Amino acid sequence: MTSQSAATLRSRYAVQAASDLEENRRRQRELAEKLAMLREEEALLIEIMALAEHHQGDAELSPLPEQAQDEPTLTQERLSRTPGAATKAPRSARTGSRAKAAAKGRSRRPLLGDLLLDLLAGHSEPHLAKDLREELMVQHPDREPTPQVVRNTLESLVAKGQVRRHKEERSVMYTLVDRGHRRTPAG
Description:
Elements lengths: L2 H52 L1 H6 L14 H5 L10 H4 L1 H10 L6 H10 L5 E2 H11 L7 H13 L3 E6 L2 E6 L11
Antiparallel strand pairs: 1-3, 2-3
Helix pairs in contact: 6-7, 7-8
């Protein structure tokens, strides 16, 4: 190898190294900006969770129409695992007896799961969640659950053994389990 080709090779390596170094610095700046944005989002989410915990007692007094009463909610255990979450008991735990006393005075609406079971009892064939939601909204105009809430409630009933899921190609349909074949909650 001649000295001229060695010098050319060295200059190419130097240019490539400088280019790689500049690209690495640019990428580091991008990642630093992204990290700062993620930290801001984390702080915002922690603040939202603290507000949700603070207002959790209010939600128990007047539940949202589309939320089924038997659906799981954010528990204190899950909140305590979140960094920066408040450590005191949720408001609902502190005012639980008052909330229960107030709820006794009002008549409760039927649970979404119960309404869906009643609708399925009227059908012998499998039905799409979308169709069940539409029928529910016709029979109960005061209820407007989102399609996702209806699907989640139906899946909850499937997990409890009260409803059977049928898959046909890309469609998921639901039927009521025969009363003789239902699992009991204990078994």
